[in-house]
Amino acid sequence: MKKKLLVLVLSAVMAVGMMSGCGAKSDTSDTKAKTAESSSAKEEETEEQTECELEDGTYTAEFKTDSGMFHVNEANDGKGTLTVKDGKMTIHVSLVSKKIVNLFEGTSEDAQKDGAELLEPTTDTVTYSDGATEEVYGFDIPVPELDKEFDVALLGKKRSLV
């Protein structure tokens, strides 16, 4: 009887924990793209991209967010592809689904202003460790400066900026 009660209590605790994990919501998704040597990011309140400290080329970079909804696909182990060309940096990340239809480089308030340019998705095919494949959306996100976080607002299928 005690074992059944313990199993029931643990199941309830796990269910509550799983439900609360998706409940966190913020107006923007702060993201951090990290290279092996340093972080890539955007200065607050600036539209200009500064010159990059890395040579032109392609790098594997870590991409972290504080959002439960917006993160890199598990097949990519939290990493994206950082491309540096002519001193400008862009990180390509494959997401977990096709539910995020656009991104905006900045806050959700700025994304709603006239003339806001939304980032369009690409269709990526990811391969999981078990060999299964899936088509998901990916995005090329401008990264103007190393070692600083930056804001990215997302537009989901329900058409609201978060």
TrEMBL record:
Signal peptide range = 1-24
Compositional bias annotation for Basic and acidic residues: 27-43
- Quick one: where's region Disordered? 23-52
Gene3D superfamilies linked to this entry: 2.60.40.1850
- Source organism, top-level taxon: Bacteria
Under what name is this protein listed?
Answer: Major membrane immunogen, membrane-anchored lipoprotein
Q: Which key words tag this protein in UniProt?
A: Signal
User: Which PROSITE patterns does the annotation name?
Assistant: PROKAR_LIPOPROTEIN
